[in-house]
Design goal:
- The protein is an alpha/beta fold and 257 residues long.
- The protein contains ten helices and six strands; from the N terminus they run αβαααβαβαβαααββα.
- Helices cover 49% and strands 13% of the residues.
- It has a six-stranded parallel beta sheet with strand order 3-4-2-1-5-6, with helices on both faces.
- Helix 1 runs parallel beside helix 10, helix 2 crosses helix 3 and helix 3 packs parallel to helix 5.
- It starts with a helix and ends in a 7-residue tail after the last helix.
Length: 257
């Protein structure tokens, strides 16, 4: 891109962003879930290795959380690593886990947000699981925005874990399967999800142009609105975020009807 075009964007975009922010309606989402997609493709597009793409993506997390605070979001869920990603070659997976550990630790040190790891932590290396739990413990008293960190997360695995937890709970009470079958409802399963006690996401954002959920928050997103952005995650900007919030605010939600 020509230097004059970059300079023009630096001048115009802040004014455009400020205008978007001023004109956002009051009906903003309470809970936003984001698939941080496109790190590897971004790395290839700039001629760098995969780890460079993941580091660039990690560097964009803190700014995005700041944008969420700016518009009054209460809960954010970030999908950093799926259960399927755990099958990647060790040469790629090990650096990625290290980048995630460092990124989550840096967020915890800020003490601006209450971090909550979600996912099948038992599938992760013990050191990674421990660092995620430590970040959650270290920020449990923070009164700021709740940030779910989804690592080793899969929607089907979450539902299976919820059912297992539900069955174990009732087995400990002495409830028979026949008795449980007669009373079981959707609220019982919701109470055993990784995000139990939280509002379901109002808006799900996926970057990189892919228009699918890939198993993200399968249960919780039943009535969510979706926004698909062409930008790769490392290139996702404040203006892209504000456009997503504007698109959500302009919709008339039907909650699945």
């Amino acid at each position: 891109m020509a230097d004059w075009k970059r300079g023009l964007r630096r001048v115009l975009y802040p004014a455009y962003e400020a205008r978007l922010l001023r004109r956002l309606p009051d009906n903003r989402p309470q809970h936003i879930a984001v698939l941080l997609d496109g790190n590897r493709r971004w790395a290839r597009s700039v001629g760098r290795d995969t780890a460079h793409g993941y580091r660039a993506g990690a560097a964009n997390i803190e700014p995005m959380l700041g944008w969420c605070e700016e518009v009054g979001i209460e809960v954010v869920t970030l999908w950093l690593l799926s259960t399927d990603n755990l099958n990647r070659p060790e040469a790629e997976l090990t650096p990625l886990l290290g980048i995630i550990e460092d990124s989550v630790a840096a967020l915890a040190e800020e003490r601006r947000w209450r971090l909550h790891p979600v996912g099948a932590l038992d599938l992760l290396p013990a050191s990674t699981a421990e660092k995620l739990k430590s970040a959650g413990d270290a920020t449990s008293d923070v009164e700021g925005m709740l940030v779910n960190i989804a690592v080793g997360y899969g929607g089907r695995r979450e539902i299976a874990d919820a059912v297992r937890s539900l069955l174990a709970e009732h087995a400990a009470r002495g409830t028979s399967l026949e008795e449980l079958a007669q009373t079981l409802d959707v609220d019982d399963i919701s109470a055993h999800l990784y995000t139990k006690g939280q509002p379901d996401p109002d808006l799900v954002i996926r970057t990189s142009g892919e228009q699918r959920l890939g198993g993200f928050l399968l249960w919780q997103s039943a009535t969510s609105e979706f926004y698909f952005c062409e930008a790769y995650w490392p290139d996702f900007r404040r203006v892209d975020f504000l456009r997503a919030i504007r698109a959500y605010a302009q919709r008339q939600r039907r909650f699945g009807t």
